[in-house]
Amino acid sequence: MSVRPATHAGSWYSGDGTRLRSQIAKYFAAAATVTSLLAETFAAWDTSKVRRVFVLGPSHHVYFRQRALVSAYAAYDTPMGQLPVDTEVCAKLCAGSSAPFGYMSEAVDDDEHSFEMHAPFIAQRAQEAGVEVKIVPIMISGLSPELREKVVAALAPYMEQEENTFVVSSDFCHWGRRFGYTEYVPGQDLAQCAEYSARRRGSNEIWQSIEFLDRSAMEIASGGKTKLWDEYIEETGNTICGQKPLGIVLRLLERGGSGGGGFKWLGYSQSSQVTDPHDSSVSYVSGYAVVG
Predict the structure, then answer these.
(1) What is any Pfam family matched here (predicted)?
(2) CA distances from 3 to 6, 152, 237 (A)
(3) Whole-angstrom distance, CA of residue 19 vs CA of residue 17
(4) For 172-285, which CATH class?
(5) For domain 3-169, is the CATH number 3.40.830.10?
(6) Mean pLDDT of successive 10-residue segments in the chain (292 residues)?
């Protein structure tokens, strides 16, 4: 059986299972920090009927646009034990020459962190609940409107089943010159979003402008309208790394006629509060949506 190694364990997070389990338990009870925002969402997750978790994440290292890619591994290793991949579902998604899905290479899968960072949380919640859960990692890169509709059509039957949970792996705004994004809103009007300049500095500190950009995105995602989400991304260029996976889930909710609308947000934070244009930050949010 082919098992994806936990390539970021020991550097991005603890590689010791006992220590990591204890850390995650503490994060579940912690205040709003980067890691506990992720834990906050999983702490609220009802696992009683869950048997499968679709994890949609962006590609951080390779670009492709013809298909979405699923994992070819049989399991993901974590410091708490192996988390099985639903190879049967992956095979069904990839079946046929016109399928909108293909397989990642092992090298691409190993390099990507967006799925691995969720794996320990999924494993721990499943172990605590005494349920057997399989994952379906789905990598998104270039995504035309046509491809998105094909991906949504393939995933829609799974969204309708109570045994399935969909997770989106994403940060929000990556601000700073090192990210190639220095957009700034001087007040409370998105139409004034433009590259930062001291000459057009308004009442907002840079970090307040970033928060305004992010919370505007959160409000749109709460409304559950994919068209408005697409327009927001086009207008602001906000560097939300999982904007395309989020768009897929919004379209799934929209297509399924979700009575609850879009996302409900639990928390928001920034890695730092930028006041100088030479600084940078990454934003983080936690939230969920319920079908029906």
Answers:
(1) Memo
(2) 9, 28, 37
(3) 6
(4) alpha beta
(5) yes
(6) 92 93 83 63 86 96 94 96 97 95 96 94 91 96 95 96 95 97 95 90 94 97 95 97 96 77 90 96 93 74
